[in-house]
Amino acid sequence: MFALPLTEDVELRPLEPWRAEEFLANLDRAREHIRPWVSPTFVATDLSSARAVLQRYADRWASDSGGIWGLWWRGTLVGGVMLVSFDVTRGVCEVGCWVEPAAEGRGMVAPAVRRIVDWAVRERGIQRVEWRTTADNTRSKALARRLGLRLDGTLRQVSPGPDGRIDLEVWSVLADEWRDAPVTLH
């Protein structure tokens, strides 16, 4: 396939089902760190469930309704970015990401998200890009701000969480805002 260099040490690559072992190893290193922030269906616990997660995203890619890409830092999968949903007819998509603790703060997630948002807006005609995060995920909200997204609002107590009901913030950027922003991929 392809590897898109983001920095000297980081590559963005498709994360396909045949990479399930690498994905599971990444999730094993990240599991407790990301558990509060991602869907339980994403945090695979064995090779079969890791393959199933990646197959769901492969199926989404094939049906033009989502996708997933990994971040390899010095040859090791340390996280990734995804189009959680992708609807060209409505012109709306949702982006997301995850990263293991050792990869945090290394400047790799923002350029990866920028790449997929830029592709969605400029190549596919997406009009609204959404970012959804729990209200207490300060790192995620800071990244949304750095990417130029705006807080649309909070869905209060939208779903059960480990410590009670969670509030979910919805952030977004519109195509015109994205295209008018200064072009920076890092």
Automatic annotation (TrEMBL):
One cellular-component annotation, GO: cytoplasm
Keyword Chloroplast found: no
Assigned keywords, A-Z: Transferase
Q: Which Pfam families match?
A: Acetyltransf_3
Q: What span is annotated as the signal peptide, if there is one?
A: none
Any single GO molecular-function term of the entry would be: protein-N-terminal-alanine acetyltransferase activity
Instruction: Decide whether keyword Ribonucleoprotein is in the record.
Output: no
Residue ranges constituting the N-acetyltransferase domain according to the UniProt record? 10-177
* Name of the featured protein: RimJ/RimL family protein N-acetyltransferase
Can you name the source organism? Micromonospora inaquosa
Higher taxonomy: Bacteria, Bacillati, Actinomycetota, Actinomycetes, Micromonosporales
